[in-house]
Amino acid sequence: MKSICLAAALVLAAPACAFADEISDSIEAALGAYRDGDIAGAKEELDYASQLLGQIKAESMSGFLPEPRDGWTRELDAPESTAVFGGGVMAGASYHSEGGDDVTIELMADNAMVASMGAMFGSTAMMASMGRVTRVGGEKFVVADGEITGFVGGRVLVKLSGSAADEDKMAYLELIDLDALAKF
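Structure (tokenized):
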């Protein structure tokens, strides 16, 4: 039994270990290139390692997306570490009810576009000019035009949209561990 558990743990850990080996290999190659005076090669290797680390971080962000509520299904989007919108990580999911309604959750962190929104979401007065302000888990969100949008921990944009009623979107928002997401 112990060997079966050990084998299962090794199989589950293999993708993370493969990434870790590839990351450390790339960093070592960058150091070697730097020592050899190949600055362009060193930078390319470090950029590659950085991209792999971003992929790991994006995959971990998907863990904040809640399981579907009773009577709903969930489709996870592929997590991204991207240069689009100024870099950072993104994760999302679409939820579909048996009645045909849908909710889409988008999480975006650590990029220039999200950072530029910080001042807007840091001011309750500014948020109120965009729609109704509500608080969930100690964080402020704007409810307007069928969307719920907030800025968690000063760096993670959380957006819920879709055809479902605001109450359904709010129920999904309440399922997200906002305290943990703020520390992501």
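Residues 1-17 have pLDDT under 50 and may be disordered. The chain is about 45% helix and 25% strand.
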